[in-house]
C-alpha cells in the first residue's frame, strides 16, 4: 500500500512509497482504511525533531476513515464503521483518567514506541502511535471513535486534533468569560479554532496575531474583531486595553519568544494559555518577582484540556448547529502524491488546513 515516509529526523520532504504494510493487527486492535487526513503543524515538528518521534516513521495523526477489520475482544466497533482517529486514547483506569483528566493519560504515548508499519527494509513507526499519511493503519481500538453518518471524513479528521485542541483551549482550559478581551498569537488551524472558541464563549474583543496576511484575513471571517501583524500587537494592546493587557492570551506557536510576548501582553491577574507544542530545549524565562507580583495564570492546554470524547461530541453538535465553521478551515486539498505540496502550503502560511484525500 502507499504511504508517505520520513526516513530520518531532519528530512524536510516526504517520500511516497508503495511497499508499506500495516502490521500489528490482533486482539484489541482495528484496521482502518484512511479516507481523509489533515496536515497538522505537529507533524512537521516531528519531522524536524522538535517533537520526539522514532524514525523512520509515517506522519499524520488527524485522520478519519472506515474500519476494515476488528481484532478479538474489540467491542462496540465493527467492519464498515465510520471513525475518526484519536491519537491520545484514554485508558480510563490510570490515576489521570480517574481524576477526569483523560487528556493527560500516558497510555496513548506508549503506542508511539511500537512500530505499526513495515517495509522490506525493516520496521516503520506511526507518528503518535497512528500514522495517517497512508491508505491503511492498524491502531488500538481506543483510537477509533465512531462518527455519525452525516459527518464527512474531512470534517471528522479536523475534529481529531486541531479543532478539538483550539476549541478546548478556550472553553475547557482558559474558560474565557463573556465580555472579555482576547488575543490569539498564531492563526493556523488551531489558532482559528481557539478564536471560534473565544467567540462561542462571548468574548467582546478578539485580536488575531499572525505574520501572514491571508491568515489575518481568515481570522476576521472566523470571529476575530481585529487582526494585526506581530509588530502591531503592542498598539492593539494600548488601544483596546489602555495598556493594561488582555484578559486572555493564547500562544499557538510553540516558541518561548512568542510565549514571552504573550505573557507581557496578558494583564495582571489575566490568563496566558499555552497551546503550541514546542521543543524540550526551548526554555521560557520568568523572574520570580513578576511571577509573584503579576499573578498571571499560566495554563498549558494539552489536546484541548478536557475529555476528548466529550470534546468530539461537542464539536460535532456545534458544527451541526452552525455555531462553528469547520469546512472553511480546509483551504487546500491534495492527494497523497501531493503531500509535499501540503508541506509547502503549511510552511509558507498559505494554508489553514490542507486535507490529504486518499
Describe the secondary structure blueprint for this structure.
Blueprint: E1 3-5, E2 15-17, E3 21-22, E4 29-38, H1 41-47, E5 57-58, E6 62-70, E7 82-85, H2 95-98, H3 107-110, E8 117-119, E9 122-126, E10 136-140, E11 144-146, H4 153-159, H5 162-173, E12 181-185, H6 189-201, E13 205-209, H7 213-221, E14 226-228, H8 233-241, E15 246-251, H9 256-265, E16 266-274, H10 288-294, E17 297-300, H11 308-320, E18 330-335, H12 339-348, E19 353-357
Parallel strand pairs: 5-9, 12-13, 12-15, 13-14, 15-16, 16-17, 18-19
Antiparallel strand pairs: 1-2, 3-8, 4-6, 4-10, 4-19, 6-7, 7-11, 8-9
Description:
With 358 residues, the protein is α/β, with parallel strands linked by helices. It has helices at residues 41-47, 95-98, 107-110, 153-159, 162-173, 189-201, 213-221, 233-241, 256-265, 288-294, 308-320, 339-348; strands spanning 3-5, 15-17, 21-22, 29-38, 57-58, 62-70, 82-85, 117-119, 122-126, 136-140, 144-146, 181-185, 205-209, 226-228, 246-251, 266-274, 297-300, 330-335, 353-357. Strands 4, 6, 7, 10, 11, 18 and 19 form a seven-stranded mixed β-sheet that branches. Strand 16, helix 10 and strand 17 (297-300) form a beta-alpha-beta unit. Helix 5 (162-173) packs across helix 11. The protein is globular, with a radius of gyration of 20 Å.
Classify the secondary structure makeup into a structural class. Answer: alpha/beta
Number of strands: 19
| Portion in beta strands | 25-35%
CA radius of gyration is 20 Å
Number of helices: 12
Q: Which consecutive residue ranges, at least 5 long each, have pLDDT under 50?
A: none
Overall mean confidence score, pLDDT: 96
The main pleated sheet reads as:
7 strands, mixed
Please give the share of residues in helix. Answer: 25-40%
What's the oligomerization state? Answer: single chain
What best-fitting shape do the alpha-carbon axes yield?
globular
Terminal CA distance reads 11 Å
